[in-house]
Amino acid sequence: MGEAAMRKKAQKKFRIRGFTLKVDALDAVLSFISRFPEAEEEALEILIDGIEKESLKSTILDKEAVQTVIDLLLEAESAIDPTSTSVSSRTALRVIDAFVIPRFRYDPIKNVFYEHTGKLPIHGEAADKAALYRDRYQLMLQRLTRDKYFSTPAFVAELMEDESCKITTIQSLTGCKGRRWITGVISQLEEGRFYLEDLTAAIAIDLSDAISFLYLHTRFYLISSLKLCNPDKFNPPILKHISGKCCNEDILYLNTKHKITSGFFVENTVIVAEGELQLDCTFKVSTCGFPPLENREVSVKQLMGLDFFGGGILSAEETLRLSELEEMAVNDMFVILSDVWLDDEETMEKLAVVLDGYESVEAVPSLFVLMGNFCSKPCNLAFHSFSDLRMQFKKLGEMIQSRKRIMEQSRFLFIPGPDDIGPAKVLPRCALPKYLTEELQKLVPNAIFSTNPCRIKFFTQEIVFFRQDLLYRMRRACLVPPSTEETTDPFEHLVATITHQSHLCPLPLTVEPIIWNYDHCLRLYPTPHTIVLGDKSEQKAFKYTGITCFNPGSFSKDTTFAAYRPCTKDVELSGLES
After folding, report:
1. Is residue 397 predicted with pLDDT exceeding 60?
2. Do you know which Pfam families this protein is assigned to (predicted)?
3. Residue 426 to residue 196: CA distance in whole angstroms
4. Which among 277, 421, 399, 275 has a CA at the least distance from the CA of 347?
5. CA quadruple 283, 285, 289, 292: dihedral sign
6. How far apart are CA 473 and CA 494, in angstroms?
7. CA 28 → CA 53, 65, 442, 444, distances in Å?
């Protein structure tokens, strides 16, 4: 079939399905179809089927929307056909916009997740705010009730009595005597008084006698009554999961000098607490901690093929093939820089040094991730230098264009910072406006402008990028000082908090506003392989229960950045000499 005839046929097929193609999108479709000269119609139908499954902002398709599906189809083709060489680092790398991530809700009756259908408005109603908290809590509760220490055994009564910690709803505490385990969201319903809320009721909590979970290597457990018990009869559920260990010789030591476990306990976080109901209807907490962290493989198996990450679902054969290709991608490297101030001459000179350094290496990085802020001054109502900032982006494009190897072989991902220009300072933040970036885009066609947070799928690996000064805010909002027994590093406390809460920003909405209908874009469930937290604090790297987490530091202030190798999940913290 001739090119003109195929062009008309493609347009007609898309119109029948309710889509309109822009010129660049149509060219991408024809380029894809030309790969299959003997099965052009089948390839076109498969492409349209794939586009229908995507979460699209509009029925008018541009090149980016079409190319995303084409890249996925080429990946699948290579996974099925080992002789195919169509997958490269460029096609294997998929950037996922936060606003197209599918939303799932948990049905506690059927014990399944179902996908939300229909459009999600930016400006929600009051019910949407309540749904935000309810969805967060139910996500944590379904994970908690699957844990072997908190699930109720069906038959073995002795196991249930000695080793199982049954969760009691807050409403059911009335009339109960003795110690009980409850779970809920920490909230401040009255000034200066904190409550624990679940879906049934709320109860005031007293943390004055709360004690922390700590590990010591002995053969016994020392509990608050100072009685020794056989370790075979006692299992500290929260502690084992917090440390990521499971050993018969690990013990639990309850130290009254320390009030909480690792992590930042702030409003809106979900905790599990053991205590006793008092006569004044206050729940006196004796021990508390975050819900146990669930292994990624267990979560994926439980979800039965649902795409929480937004990168598409792969079959077992495709996953196996792409995993092999991922291990072979030893030359692929991501370079991450945060706080790249384009209006600061010193910062631009340092950036030129970094680009020159990677231009001269044998294998140039496959991806450069530049995170905001892109201006040394906040882009608020007092900021009027938008035309100057636009020219700074153009200068950056010229700087990249002058490095031929990087220009040809690397891609550039731009993620806005908390003080960059945008419609509002809420999460998730939309991509930088085209007015600022269009000149750079003309010079660097490989540039991608995404949202904050942003997700990347590299072959089978899931990576989350988030630019926010989170550590400072979490420490300010922390209700009590974090424990120093397991770690004194604030970054490790931060990683423990966001992973156990399965959320990038578990702060109160008054501290960090979130679009109610898009709170799911900040979830970390199932836990991704890698989390990159762009923060102005000191650069750090930390592996926590198999999850690689790191902060590249502030490039403009400390001249620090990070290099990440996805095939080995290794992080190289780097910096320029002053």
Report:
1. yes
2. DNA_pol_E_B, Dpoe2NT
3. 26
4. 399
5. negative
6. 11
7. 18, 10, 18, 19
φ and ψ of 163, to 5 deg: -115, -20
Tokens read off for 90: 């460029």
User: Encoding tokens for residue 298?
Assistant: 């267990």
Percent of the chain with pLDDT over 90: 54
User: Is the pLDDT assigned to residue 303 strictly greater than 70?
Assistant: yes
Contact predicate 78/323, CB 8 Å: no
Do 222 and 251 form a contact (C-beta atoms < 8 A)? yes
Q: Report pLDDT for 253.
A: 30
β-strand partners of 336: 369, 562
Q: Where are the alpha helices (DSSP H) in 195-279?
A: 237-243
Q: Residue 577 has what pLDDT?
A: 85
Q: What is the pLDDT of residues 316-340, one digit of tens each?
A: 878 888 888 898 899 999 999 999 9
Q: How many residues does the chain have?
A: 578
Write the burial class of residue 87 (CB in 10 Å: 0-12 exposed, 13-18 middle, 19+ buried): buried
Q: Which amino acid is at 570?
A: D
Structure confidence at residue 407 as a pLDDT band (50, 70, 90): very high
Measured CA to CA in angstroms, residue 435 lies from 354, 372, 398, 423, 432 at distances of 27, 17, 17, 14, 8
φ and ψ at 144, to 5 degrees? -70, -45
Taking a C-beta distance cutoff of 8 angstroms, is the pair 372, 325 a contact? Answer: no
How many other CB atoms are found less than 10 A from the CB of residue 380? 9
